[in-house]
UniProtKB/TrEMBL annotation:
It holds the Pfam family HTH_3. This is Helix-turn-helix protein. SUPFAM superfamilies: lambda repressor-like DNA-binding domains (SSF47413). InterPro entries: Cro/C1-type_HTH, Lambda_DNA-bd_dom_sf. Residues 43-105 form the HTH cro/C1-type domain. One of its GO terms (molecular function) is DNA binding.
C-alpha cells in the first residue's frame, strides 16, 4: 500500500456551509468571522490544488507536520494569528505567492442636500 500518495477525502465546503447557514446562530457567527474563514479556505484550496499533504507542506517549510495542521485548523479562528513570514512560507511551499488586498468599504450613498 502506498501511504505517500495524496488521496483526499471528498469534502464539499460550499454544500456544508449552505446547510449550516440555515441556522441563524451559525450564520451570525460565520459573518462575524468571515475574513478568517476565507483565509482558511485559501490555504486549504492552495494545498489541494498542489496535490500535497500537510506532511509535504511541512517538509518544504522546514517545520513539523503538526505546525501545518495547527496553521490550517486555527487560521479560521482568532486563537492563532500566523505571521506574514509563516504565510509566505506556506504559500511558497504550495507553489503560490502571498498577496494581500485592501478593498475600500462601500459607503452608503448620501442623499443630495438641498441648496
Amino acid at each position: 500500500m502506498d501511504h505517500d500518495r495524496y488521496n483526499p477525502v471528498p469534502f464539499d465546503v460550499e454544500a456544508i456551509r449552505k446547510r449550516w447557514m440555515k441556522d441563524p446562530v451559525f450564520a451570525e457567527a460565520f459573518v462575524a468571522l468571515e475574513d478568517e474563514y476565507v483565509a482558511l479556505e485559501e490555504l486549504l484550496r492552495a494545498r489541494q490544488r498542489a496535490g500535497m499533504t500537510q506532511a509535504d507542506v511541512a517538509e518544504r517549510m522546514g517545520v513539523a507536520q503538526s505546525s501545518v495542521g495547527r496553521l490550517e485548523s486555527t487560521a479560521g479562528s482568532r486563537k492563532h494569528a500566523p505571521s506574514l513570514t509563516t504565510l509566505r512560507k506556506y504559500a511558497a511551499a504550495v507553489g503560490c505567492e502571498l498577496r494581500i488586498t485592501l478593498t475600500p468599504i462601500a459607503k452608503p450613498k448620501r442623499e443630495p442636500t438641498a441648496a
